Amino acid sequence: MRRQVLSAVEVARGEGRGWFEIADALGVPLQTLRRWRTEKDEAPAALVPVAVVDERVARSAAPLTIVTPTGFRIEGLEVEEAAALLRALA
Asked: Which of 10, 40, 82, 85 sits CB 3.0–4.6 Å from 77 for a disulfide?
């Protein structure tokens, strides 16, 4: 259905019709038409290469700091400690 709608949009735009007129005629919200058209032009997302880091190296990283929305700061936590704290506060 999306392809058919986008084909109709291309024809209508080629005829000089405006977005509001096209959306009304097709019964599809204007924002949806524009998003579909933009998504059609975008290349599909590609996989991003990652590197697996040795756990010992990851633990030697700088300590974490947690700042709450009210400004309360907790500094010097390791990843496991920060995770436990966040679970306890949830």
From this structure: 82
Token duo for residue 39: 């998504």
pTM: 0.42
CB burial readout 23-49, b (16+ within 10 A) else e: beebebeeeebeeeeeeeeeeeeeeee
Q: What angle do CA 9, 11, 13 make, to 5 degrees?
A: 65
- 56: which 2 tokens? 């010992």
Strands 64-67, 73-77: parallel, antiparallel or unpaired by DSSP?
A: antiparallel
**How far, in Å, are 17, 26, 85 from residue 33 at the CA level?**
14, 10, 45
Instruction: Give the model's confidence band at 11: pLDDT under 50 very low, under 70 low, under 90 confident, else very high.
Output: very high
The span from the CA of 71 to the CA of 23, in Å, is 46
